[in-house]
Fold this sequence. Notes:
single chain; 329 residues; 15 helices; 9% strand; globular; disordered N terminus; disordered C terminus; transferase; P-loop_NTPase; sulfotransferase activity; Sulfotransferase_dom; Sulfotransferase family cytosolic 1b member 1
Amino acid sequence: MLYLGLEVWYECRQKSEKVTIYPSQSYFCFDITVPTSPTLCRTVSISNLLTAKHSMRCTKGVETCKTREDDVIVVAYPKSGTHWVWEMVRLLQAGTTDVPLVEKDDGMIEDVVPETLEALPSPRALNTHAHFELMPQDILKKKSCKLIYVTRDPRDVMVSYFNHHRKLTQYYNYSGQWKDYFPLFLSGKVDYESWFAYTQGWEQGMKDNPDLQVHVTSYEALHENTEEEIKKTAGFLGTSADKAFLREVMKKTDFESMRATKGKNETFEGGAVMYRKGKVGDWKNWFTVAQSEQFDAVFEQEMKGTKAYELYSIKKQDFSTPDRNMNEK
Length: 329
């Protein structure tokens, strides 16, 4: 997981071509302080941004990461199904569901140092929450590796992210209530900053680079017809589309199976928030009428004309159906 908003580093880089990390040094208006070492942020203060410790060296290594032709990179805003899709990709690449237990963070581009990524054997299943403009430049130059872009209803993202920040107490120490968190998310004062900017950036990036190999899916589509979406993913990757195997992959990566096999390893102080509920439409249990109206107004202003608007505008969908169990990974 990334605990320091990547856009903060990007803004610093834009303001100065040479930004060196020193202990107890503040940077521009972001007030970034690294009190313990040149590379590891034990505590980070970035104005009102909700963040926690992270290695600056990992963050800076994102843009220079070297890709391979057989790499598959799952890209998504946090709490949008990255775990779920990444596990599917791993099994599809291997051609079997009998694979070693590996943590997603081991292949997270912004969470490990470049040397660790370089040591991973091919084909690599990587993942990132990075904004498009912060993706490895190698991707745009070579355009040979494959990307899987996953989107999710931002209202469900917000609810899941709230629980993430509340329960990972050893990282965030966040004790605010839902009513306090709601404006933080809307204004982008969370890890990876604005969902709206992230989504706009990726849509524009894919539009400007039509020769990028990108498969687009959504959390909702994956839930609605999991087997069909896995089949589409296998077709994109050029891996086995045997029906029996795809059903094995679906079973191995369903919510209960993932929670049983991986939840124990990904349980942090405060609870196993990586595998919380796994539902579509859970936001209806959290949003007040006033919050829903406020969100709709912001969404209309920020996202009108985008593909995400077509997917998630309240004017385009009927969210009156009951909550349905699905994989939240």
